[in-house]
Amino acid sequence: MMNIRRNIKPGRVRGHSLCTSASQGVRPLNERGVALWEFALVLPVVLFIALGVFDFGKLIYFSIEVESAARAAAMFGAQNAGEATTNPAGITQAAYNEAPDIQVGHCGTGQPPGSGCWLGSGAGAFLAPGDTFYYGCECPDGSGIKSGNTACTGCSGGQHEVYWVAVQTQATYKPFVPWNQLPFTGLPASYNLTGYAKVRLGAQ
Amino acid sequence: MAMLAVSMFALIALMGLAIDMGYYRYFRRKMQTAADAAALAGALQVPFGSANIQTAGTSAATENGFTAGNGVTVTISNPPVDPPFNSSTYPTYVEAKVTESQLPTFFSRIFGVTSFPGTLTTSAVAEGSLNCIYALDTSKATTVVTVSNAIVNSNCGITDNSGMTLTGGFTGLCAPSVQVFVSPAVAAGSCSNGKDVKPAPPTLLWHQVGDPFAYLTAPCSVNDAGCGTATYNDPPTTVCPVGTTVITTVSNPEPYNAAWATTPPCFTPAVTFAANSNPTFAAGATFLNTLTINGGFLGTVAFKGSNTVQTSIRGGLHVQGGLLSSVNFYPGVFVISGGISDNGFINLMNFNANCNYQRGVANGCASNPTTIILDGGGMGLTGTIPTGAGVFIYNTADFTPGFSVPYGAINVKFGLGTLMQAPTGGNCGLSPGVSCAGILFFQDRNNPQPAVFAANLTFGSGNSFLEGAYYFKDATVNFQFDFGANAQYSFLVAKDLDWTFAFTFRNSYQSLPNNSPIQEGTAVLVQ
Min CA distance, B491 vs chain A (Å)? Predict the structure, then answer.
């Protein structure tokens, strides 16, 4: 095979279809191996980009899970209203259940690359900023917010107070590739992800 | 090399697209959370009218990160605008739609695409106000709701501010939702046999709810403590009202005078009529003492009514003996101190003789109601069959100085063919602008006398029903018959609830102008 290819030179047998085909498929001697070189040159770039996309994709994926977890936990607290007061740990568990790919207790230096880890466990793990309870009341227009069992009164304009459950989930994602160790990237070693949902459950 | 450049360009473009699509999906998730929260918030306002549905929906979207402006729109619709709930058939449904038209891209910017083309839209639909049964007792006792050897089936939710007890082998409490403040020791089940609650375990309330009928400003007279604007007068004591024919001596029974049909009489002594004499009394008739009606056979007593000239009885209305005689009230206000009682034999009492019941219809005549003020003494019926479409009964006490009549109980054993319907409109002596639509029994919020709704054991109560709300904020209500099975809807708001007989709660509110009168909101996502 090699002999045949070596003996056939482009343009020597004009008008022959085989020749035309051969002329397109065979490189000159001085271009042999270029494809390999090109591949070798491009492969790191492609891998670099592919790994970046892979990591970014996972980051987005975990972000969606964290966001979904916040919604699920708030819904759990709202539709099983007693749980918001008597079982705050249940709200945490509801968030965990919604995002099974995110793990508990692996945060910090021991967190495996490419994994998600919940920042918080037990009762009160996902309290919204400034809240000491998962629940409270407010006026329908969002004014007069009170947390916990503080009575919510005095809504203006004949508005009736509403009760709410609010959850802010927090997790961290450690990239599969330690991008932060590459020079000049300025990227963090891990990414904090947050999800937030506030659901109203009753009015009177 | 050119091919390589083209390939790399395409590869990077595809990877960039993948990243942007990931962000798109993430953003949609956030939008959906906001839409769900907005729909629920809007639906929670449904029981209070349409005034705050928009405000509540948009503020809930804001709380979840989506405020109108900069490409974001938040639309709240009641009823929904999109199929399948886009009709007036779904007045309690609220649709929330969150759209974003300027969602930025990341990698696609390389190719000049700075924002996602088109508009991202997420929507959610929630249904408001599902509850129709409330036990308001905040004592946390486990016997605030009791069900004994009875199956209570409800199409609408139950809220109990304390605990519940189920006893007996064929007992159940079944509703779309059961909310309690104190966790009960009840088992889950099918609600067709055994001792169970469905759904089980009941949802735990984290706050005790308030009175869903708190907005109903009670009728009151000038002698009632805290009465702002009096809406009725306590029956006079010794002096007859101007415009009445004063009668100071009577026979027994008193013969009927046809002139009373046009000029109202005022009897100062106790008086007894024979139903067979078919007396008719003009609006404004006044009885300063007891009024007794001898039932006789097939007689008819008529009390004409008026919303401005009230008919008053100070010593109570008593129907005795007789068979198949009728006591008819016409739309207007009737104030009766001393209670309504009977010992007759299948006599009829039509509380709104102008109006026949029409199932599920916004009946014009039922919006012109008869208002019965039980001004002390309550109501105890054992053999009378009450009827009437458009009836409002308020059970209070008479605090006239020197002539007071204490709170009485409503204790009735309704007979075969009992059929009473709450008004479908009208005011019934409530504050101006407050409708009494859907309210059948309203007991004074300070009246602790327990109410009993039972069947007439002698004649049975087949096909009997009471359609409307039983509102006994400070009293126990005991049901010994199913007055809801043939009614279009029932509401029960009381301090304590006690069922010793099966009861059915339905929730077809087509005849009511503003749907359910309950003003305490719950909501669920339906789409």
Answer: 17
